[in-house]
Amino acid sequence: MTDLPIKNLIRRYRFDIGEMTQKELAALVGVTRQTIVAIENAKYSPTLELAFKIAEVFDASVEDVFQYQPNAGQKQKS
Amino acid sequence: MSPFIKSTYLSIFTTVVIFSVYFVWIFQILGVGFFAGPDELVRIGKAIGILTLAGWAFEITLVIGVTLFDARKAGKKLHQIVVDERDKQINYRSNFISMHVLCAGLLLSVGALAMGWAPFWVFNIIVLFYAFANLTELGARVFFIHQGMSA
Known about the structure:
The complex is a heterodimer.
Chain A: E1 6-8, H1 10-16, H2 22-29, H3 33-40, H4 48-57, H5 62-65, E2 66-68, H6 70-77
Chain B: H1 3-30, H2 40-73, H3 85-114, H4 119-147
Helix pairs in contact in B: 1-2, 1-4, 2-4, 3-4
């Protein structure tokens, strides 16, 4: 399965705020750790609500945490 | 392992067990001859009724039992078990795929009925495709869980 065009910096933000684990982040935003793994690996695009919750945890804006890169997805397909 | 993944694997196990028991019971123990005669519909109806009730009871007991056990082990209450948006999307999509398998079975059974097949075989085509549909749904779930879930 190809990667999705929505990239994110969740991994970097997690480490920037004291090496927060995926499990801790998952608990804070109310999802499973598997969902955080899938989002970090660009295998799942979160809903807007979840994206806002994740950004809120990092005290950042959604645009800081998530980036839309449509060409990245196309590169993966070719 | 999340409760969703665990319940998926458990459901694959229960589906295989339930339908294997059903088909062995119908074809090996009772035999096709048991369902011949004037009360054919009543007998096949009872068999499918028992399959449905016993199957649900078995699956519900096992899945809820294991989930409760895991929750207790992790010191959580049942409402604290997370089924998140991705799990729900995976569920919807795999349901959608399995619906096509079930519809194919229903259409085949209608065709079989039109061709004059005995009700025993018509009903068992439906049961067989119900089993296929279940396994397709669970297989799709496993696929989406492991391969990601693009919207």
